Structures are given as C-alpha cells and as structure tokens.
Amino acid sequence: MEGDCLSCMKYLMFLFNFFIFLGGACLLGLGIWVIVDPTGFREIVAANPLLFTGAYIMLAMGAMLFLLGFLGCCGAIRENKCLLLFFFMFILLIFLAELSAAILAFIFRENLTREFFTKELKKHYQRNNDTDVFSSTWNSVMITFACCGVNGPEDFEAIPNLPYSSLEKATPEACCQRELQSREGMFVNKEACLSGVERFQNRQGCYTVILNSFETYVYLAGALAIGVLAIELFAMIFAMCLFRGIQ
C-alpha cells in the first residue's frame, strides 16, 4: 500500500512539475517578446524603470521555472533525494520572490495611472520628431490603436510645435484618421485634421483604448499567476512527501 502511495505521489509530482515547466516556458517566451518586440512597445517599457525591471524579472522567473520544472520531473521519475531537496528549496525561494513582486506591484501601481502617463507625455513628447525614441514610440502607439494622447488631443495643447511647424498648437499627425491604421496608411484628410477639424481626428485617449483592449488579458494574466502559485505550493508539498517516502 505504501509503495502504491509513493508511486502515486511520484507521478503527481511529475505532473505538477510538468505544468511548472510549461508555465516557465510561457513566461520565458513572453519576457523575450516584451524585450525584443520590434513593434516599438519595448521603448515604452525601457522609458519606464518599473516596467523595464518587471520585464527582466519576468524573463528571469520564466527561465528559473523552466529549469526547475525540468529538474523536478527528473527528480520525481528517478526518485533522487538530492534533486528533490534542491527543487524544494529553490522553488520556495521563487515562491517567496513572486509574492514579494506581487506586493511591490500593488504598492507601486500608482506609476501606471493615467496621471503618470499624462505627465510623462507632456514632459518628453516632441511631436513628429521621429529621431526621438519616446516620441516615435508614442506615435506608433497612437497610429496602431487609432487614439490620441493619454486622455485625448487636449494633452498636446501645452506641448510646443517643432520649429518648422506653421500650425500653432497643432494636433500631431499620429492623431489624424487614416484609411489603414499603420504608418503607411493614407490620411483621410490631413490638412483638416491638423487645422482642428474633429471629425478627421482620433479623439479617444490611448489610456482608455489600450486598457479596454488588454482588460481581458490582464484578468487572464492574474488568474494564470494565481494558478502558478497554487501549482508551486502543491509541488513543494509533493516534493517533501516524496523526499520523506524514498528509502
């Protein structure tokens, strides 16, 4: 009976570690995508130290979970006490680190507010200056999501025009409606848009548009994080039970 229980524990341990292995692979892939993504979102991440640090933490956590899932599977199948003990101690450290990261994210969540992005936009944005990374990235975001500024075109009223611009307080070209939402898309009516005709402008702020676009994925990511923590907790319990059951 004891042998059957140990065998069941071994395969449950393997199953949980297999899920940890898959979760680590997903986090690793997501972290790499955020850092090397060619669409310009990496520049927004780089401009915000909190997001920049979070991307690399996600990458490191994914790599560690990937490795630990692999070691846990090997330790369970081969019934190696050394690997199981190493797995338990290391995954305990990761579990505590993830809880700490969640607490820090909650504490510093004000850095992701509408007011924070509005202040950064007004401080660093240089309109159609594509040689500036921050401005070029914001232009790409506004074109891609058919939005304007953080709250709307009014965000740009306090931002001076470039010296060669003849329009005072002009709306950036990136806020003008296009037939196709890409840099290659033709303007519906560029002159009217820059002159302030609202029906040729994208009036909705990017904060609301992006938040609505990713709202489902945020809840999905939260549920995934809770699931990963639960799997890690069960994996630690099975690791200790299997460790104590191996003669």
UniProtKB/TrEMBL annotation:
<keyword id="KW-1133">Transmembrane helix</keyword>
<feature type="transmembrane region" description="Helical">
    <location>
        <begin position="12"/>
        <end position="36"/>
    </location>
</feature>
<keyword id="KW-0472">Membrane</keyword>
<dbReference type="InterPro" id="IPR018499">
    <property type="entry name" value="Tetraspanin/Peripherin"/>
</dbReference>
<protein>
    <recommendedName>
        <fullName>Tetraspanin</fullName>
    </recommendedName>
</protein>
<feature type="transmembrane region" description="Helical">
    <location>
        <begin position="84"/>
        <end position="108"/>
    </location>
</feature>
<feature type="transmembrane region" description="Helical">
    <location>
        <begin position="56"/>
        <end position="77"/>
    </location>
</feature>
<comment type="similarity">
    <text>Belongs to the tetraspanin (TM4SF) family.</text>
</comment>
<dbReference type="InterPro" id="IPR018503">
    <property type="entry name" value="Tetraspanin_CS"/>
</dbReference>
<feature type="transmembrane region" description="Helical">
    <location>
        <begin position="217"/>
        <end position="243"/>
    </location>
</feature>
<dbReference type="InterPro" id="IPR000301">
    <property type="entry name" value="Tetraspanin_animals"/>
</dbReference>
<keyword id="KW-0325">Glycoprotein</keyword>
<keyword id="KW-0812">Transmembrane</keyword>
<dbReference type="InterPro" id="IPR008952">
    <property type="entry name" value="Tetraspanin_EC2_sf"/>
</dbReference>
<dbReference type="GO" id="GO:0005886">
    <property type="term" value="C:plasma membrane"/>
</dbReference>
<dbReference type="Pfam" id="PF00335">
    <property type="entry name" value="Tetraspanin"/>
</dbReference>
